[in-house]
Design a protein that fits this description.
2 domains; Lysozyme-like; about 240 residues; about 35% helix; two-stranded antiparallel ribbon; cell wall biogenesis/degradation; 6 helices; alpha/beta
Length: about 240
């Protein structure tokens, strides 16, 4: 589960980005570059919210339950931060307890998704935004965090329904951002530098999981090709 004490993630880095803007303008000698970067800065200023549709999810079939604003940081990924990893977590508790924790502004941690034992998926933060789930700022900015209901020392918590649903979710995320389906890019919380967490633990079957992700990715690609109208398909949209 996401680590507490992630206050460093709350730093919006406006000062550093302002310096970048100045450098870009001087080097490029064009107002277009400045306008593009300043547009991003505008959305990241305190009190400014980038428009979102209420209840919109990034994975079709997920239910939306909003995390506390204190447990994530607004962004415009992958434009401002590339997304090249998925981090697998285990909640160390029930799905409901994880939801309550991520809704608690004092918790200072969250994840984009929670997958239940029954395979139901809850989204609490948009993939556009930075969730405080990894306990490492760089990893938070470049990854999507997926929690799984259960305990690391109880292999029976990792049900067939959970594996299948999580694999479909991860396959969709990997396809959306061009993430390779391998153990360098789909990692456990325990593998994040500087963390003191052990999840998903020794009972998480990585070989099985990656096979399911690859299989789901193939099925999704075939489904998309068969559904695409003649002449090509349009741009991806939330929920796809």
């Amino acid at each position: 589960m996401g680590a507490k004490g992630a206050s460093e993630d709350g730093d919006r880095r406006i000062g550093r980005r302002a310096l970048i803007v100045g450098g870009l303008v001087a080097a490029a000698g064009t107002a277009a570059v400045a306008r593009d970067e300043l547009a991003r800065l505008w959305w990241r200023l305190p009190g400014i919210d980038k428009p979102r549709k209420p209840g919109e999810v990034d994975f079709a079939g997920a239910r939306w339950v909003a995390a506390s604003d204190a447990n994530w940081r607004g962004a415009d990924r992958p434009d401002d931060y590339r997304i090249d990893m998925v981090v697998v977590h285990v909640t160390q508790g029930s799905l409901d307890s994880a939801v309550r924790a991520f809704q608690d502004p004092g918790h200072k941690a969250s994840a984009h998704y929670i997958v239940g034992k029954d395979g139901r998926i809850t989204q609490m933060i948009r993939e556009l935004d930075v969730a405080y789930h990894a306990g490492n700022r760089d990893y938070n900015e470049r990854s999507v965090g997926i929690e799984h209901e259960g305990f690391v020392d109880r292999p029976e918590d990792f049900t067939d329904e959970m594996y299948a649903a999580s694999a479909r979710l991860t396959a969709r995320i990997c396809a959306r951002y061009g993430i390779p389906v391998d153990r360098e890019h789909i990692i456990g919380h325990v593998e994040v530098p500087g963390t003191d967490h052990t999840d998903p633990g020794p009972h998480w079957d990585w070989d099985r999981y990656l096979k399911l992700v690859r299989r789901a990715g193939t099925a999704q690609s075939e489904e998309k090709r068969s559904a695409a109208p003649a002449g090509g398909s349009g741009s991806p949209t939330p929920g796809s």
